Amino acid sequence: MNVDIHDSWKPYLQPEFEKSYFKGLAEFVKLEYRTHKCFPKGSQIFNAFNHCSFDDVKVVIIGQDPYHGVDQANGLCFSVNDGIAHPPSLINIFKEIEQDLEIPYPTSGNLIPWADQGVLLLNATLTVRAHQAGSHQNKGWELFTDAVIQLINQQKQNIVFLLWGGFAKKKKKLINTAQHFILETGHPSPLSANRGYWFGNKHFSKTNSLLAQVGVYSIDWELK
């Protein structure tokens, strides 16, 4: 696996790349991509970092693992490539933004414009085998992405962490709530949203209010 990651992250993450677990993970990923159809494509595995430099991080959204359907995943949690039908969780994210900020539902589900503004869209597992959800879990990715969360926690101030659903909320233990902001709600999946645990959370307007409090430019959530 070629670790194609933005230069701004390298001084902080190089020690992680040299640990034995990561070397084993890299070998596993290389073999999987050689012998099976996997997503996202190899050049996009570290897209979350390449579109959101370390210096630019303002907001962190934590997902679980990539979409496993053909051409869906592009390396950013909840995001899909242009021209791909929006998965159910993403539909509910866009519906909440529509209600919260009164901006139109977008055509594309590609969230790169958010990442380019400083939203780190971080899946806990960065790769997956086609049509096999969770197939690359517990191979080392979680150790790496937990280290990323801890790095941001230690090195930065006033980051807004959006923890959606039980899995993401478990990451709260890695975050110092005295120096960062945490907004928690249910997962945007239909199972959770239809039970009343997602809609009305107003996380998008709340995020911008928190950023404004600390003198940081807000996020334009509208995907034009």
UniProtKB/TrEMBL annotation:
<protein>
    <recommendedName>
        <fullName>Uracil-DNA glycosylase</fullName>
        <ecNumber>3.2.2.27</ecNumber>
    </recommendedName>
</protein>
<feature type="domain" description="Uracil-DNA glycosylase-like">
    <location>
        <begin position="50"/>
        <end position="211"/>
    </location>
</feature>
<keyword id="KW-0326">Glycosidase</keyword>
<keyword id="KW-0378">Hydrolase</keyword>
<dbReference type="InterPro" id="IPR036895">
    <property type="entry name" value="Uracil-DNA_glycosylase-like_sf"/>
</dbReference>
<dbReference type="GO" id="GO:0097510">
    <property type="term" value="P:base-excision repair, AP site formation via deaminated base removal"/>
</dbReference>
<feature type="active site" description="Proton acceptor">
    <location>
        <position position="65"/>
    </location>
</feature>
<dbReference type="InterPro" id="IPR002043">
    <property type="entry name" value="UDG_fam1"/>
</dbReference>
<dbReference type="GO" id="GO:0004844">
    <property type="term" value="F:uracil DNA N-glycosylase activity"/>
</dbReference>
<dbReference type="Pfam" id="PF03167">
    <property type="entry name" value="UDG"/>
</dbReference>
<comment type="function">
    <text>Excises uracil residues from the DNA which can arise as a result of misincorporation of dUMP residues by DNA polymerase or due to deamination of cytosine.</text>
</comment>
<dbReference type="InterPro" id="IPR018085">
    <property type="entry name" value="Ura-DNA_Glyclase_AS"/>
</dbReference>
<keyword id="KW-0963">Cytoplasm</keyword>
<comment type="similarity">
    <text>Belongs to the uracil-DNA glycosylase (UDG) superfamily. UNG family.</text>
</comment>
<keyword id="KW-0227">DNA damage</keyword>
<dbReference type="GO" id="GO:0005737">
    <property type="term" value="C:cytoplasm"/>
</dbReference>
<keyword id="KW-0234">DNA repair</keyword>
<dbReference type="InterPro" id="IPR005122">
    <property type="entry name" value="Uracil-DNA_glycosylase-like"/>
</dbReference>
